[in-house]
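Thread: quick sanity check before group meeting

JM: Hey all, I'm pulling together slides for Thursday and realized we never actually wrote out the predicted structure for the chain we discussed last week. Dropping the sequence here so it's in one place. If anyone has concerns about the input, flag it before I start.
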Amino acid sequence: MHVENYVGFLVSQGIIEEADQEIYCYGFKVLMFNAICILSVMAIGLFFGLLPETVSFLIGFFGMRLYLRRRIPCSDREKVLWSFYDDLFAVLLVY
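JM (edit): ok, ran it. Output follows.
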């Protein structure tokens, strides 16, 4: 995958240490996943002509998610992400 190549390049340039390579791979994968989800939701909002509402919705839900993530311990963060995006898409489809 491209993430491993990019992180390998960063290691070869001495920007990150080889011991931290897996952590950076995971971080970049999470970043790409979040970016794809946000762009998908914004594309749906644009398709339905609700871009300002979609942006305000995303800002509100991301703020709430950051607040709750500090309050609710979770051993499996991937389940939290999937449940959040499932709820997000359901709300947008109902709206």
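AS: nice. DSSP finds four helices and no strands in the chain. The chain has one domain: 2-94.
JM: adding both to the slides.
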